[in-house]
């Protein structure tokens, strides 16, 4: 089956994305989540204002950084969640649906991140 | 399962092999299994973080009022609770990931293997420095 063969060839690439995304997630997500999800909303620290954040976003490197911060962890999570479903629930026969939703979600999120970061003034 | 007519396809699970049935809840039977599944489930919270970040970017693209509304949404107790759980899971991902680093990169200097503790230690130190730099940019940048 053509579909299955191409899937096998994709596996090393998907694993590389899993690994790279895992590194990005491990190093970067905790500090972002702690600040935006806890410290700012609970008033422990002062959240950056709209204008100062837009000033940061004006820098192309910041946009590239945010693109990587969104995209790489999504591919990492897609790969890991796929195997969680395989092993955890033993539903390997739903292969195609699972692959499509996991990696499809990651591709969609990457496209959204690219679109948003491209269009922010 | 997959074979249709003239093209015999490969099945992922060989139907003739004997396979002992494993309970769907096999991962609840031992603490190590549960830890493994919890580690794998960090992926859900990693994905959730990206979703909120995308929402935040959308708020920024829509202007100051949308940003204000987004910040109000983050103050919702339910969202805070979700973020507390997410933070714990994401920390768990970082700790497990960085602890595995010595296995993933077996660094050798002059033929001698660099001790595991040094590699994971360097990774933890890098994590600290990177976090401080990100925080600096967000708080004073």
What topology does this entry show?
The complex is a heterodimer of chains A (121) and B (141).
Chain A: H1 2-39, H2 50-57, H3 60-89, H4 95-119
Helix pairs in contact in A: 1-3, 3-4
Chain B: H1 31-62, H2 64-74, H3 77-104, E1 108-109, E2 112-113, H4 116-140
Antiparallel strand pairs in B: 1-2
Helix pairs in contact in B: 1-2, 1-3, 3-4
Question: What would you say this structure looks like, in words?
Answer:
The complex is a heterodimer of chains A (121) and B (141). Chain A is an all-alpha fold and 121 residues long. Chain A has a single domain (2-119), classed as 3 helical TM bundles of succinate and fumarate reductases. Chain A has 4 helices and no strands. The radius of gyration of chain A is 18 Å and the shape is elongated. Chain A starts with a helix and ends with a helix. In chain B, strand 1 (108-109) and strand 2 (112-113) form a beta hairpin. Chain B starts with 30 loop residues before the first helix and ends with a helix. Chain B is extended, with a radius of gyration of 23 Å. Chain B has a domain at 105-141. In chain B, strands 1-2 form a two-stranded antiparallel ribbon. Chain B has 141 residues and is mainly alpha-helical. Chain B has helices at residues 31-62, 64-74, 77-104, 116-140; strands spanning 108-109, 112-113. Classes of the chains: A mainly alpha (121), B mainly alpha (141). Chains A and B meet through helix 1, helix 2, helix 3 and helix 4 of A and helix 1, helix 2, helix 3 and helix 4 of B.
